[in-house]
């Protein structure tokens, strides 16, 4: 039994005015067309909805019951229509974005603040995790789109460049390499290197770059997050390689220094990524377009 909103509207109009003729005039239909559609509705339901009474028509008990429910359904539909319009006007909606640790901590929040200014009615949720977890969340539809740098399953994603970023070597101002210029990569390998866990994009890039240059660190310390690494470097535990966005505040206030090492900074790229086979919602599409436009600003 597939009732349509048109049928319910027509039925309610006839019931309220107790006249096919008056209902037809209000709905800009012919009287025979209205009568036929009511008969079709009665056949669909297997119920008689109206009976003749004098020169007009009245509802049967079954018709009265249907009218009660039709009023509720049409009222709900009337409430829904403005919501749909708000979604199309980007005044309502939600989107979940994932980001790898560096991007999610130091870059994406500021972009989302600008997005919220433009679209205050859209609710945005940001989830931050390592690159493997973020990629899995994207594949399992837990997030709508992600911002990350190291991507493994390229064939399953639509990948667009967002913003470039730089990896820089850092040390405490008191470190014996801090005042030296023209350092070579070989000058670093006797130092203690503080690193993220192996799932981190920064760790992946750092290991790859040093390996390609034939540099091997004998002493490394693995710490759980970027803030712990920065605190370790400030305390004199060792040196590290992190994104400029992650360390610029500490460099500006003098807690850290960027070492002058040949070949640095290393240029990297953050990307906006979503699944190829998933159609993004209007809100997610708007956020994706906003992020991609940010690289031009």
Structure description:
The protein has 297 residues and is α/β, with parallel strands linked by helices. It folds into 3 domains: 5-88, Winged helix-like DNA-binding domain superfamily/Winged helix DNA-binding domain (Arc Repressor Mutant, subunit A, Orthogonal Bundle); 93-164 and 270-294, Periplasmic binding protein-like II (D-Maltodextrin-Binding Protein, domain 2, 3-Layer(aba) Sandwich), CATH 3.40.190; 166-266, Periplasmic binding protein-like II (D-Maltodextrin-Binding Protein, domain 2, 3-Layer(aba) Sandwich), CATH 3.40.190. The chain is 45% helix and 23% strand. Strands 3, 4, 5, 6, 7, 8, 9, 10 and 11 form a 9-stranded mixed sheet that branches. A hairpin with a 2-residue loop joins β1 (50-53) and β2 (56-59). The two termini are 55 Å apart.
Compact summary:
The protein is built from eleven helices and eleven strands. By secondary structure, it is of the alpha/beta class.
- What is the arithmetic mean of pLDDT? 90
CATH architecture identity of the largest domain: 3-Layer(aba) Sandwich
Using the CA coordinates, give the radius of gyration: 32 Å
Note the run of SSEs as H and E.
HHHEEHEHHEHEEEHEHEHEEH
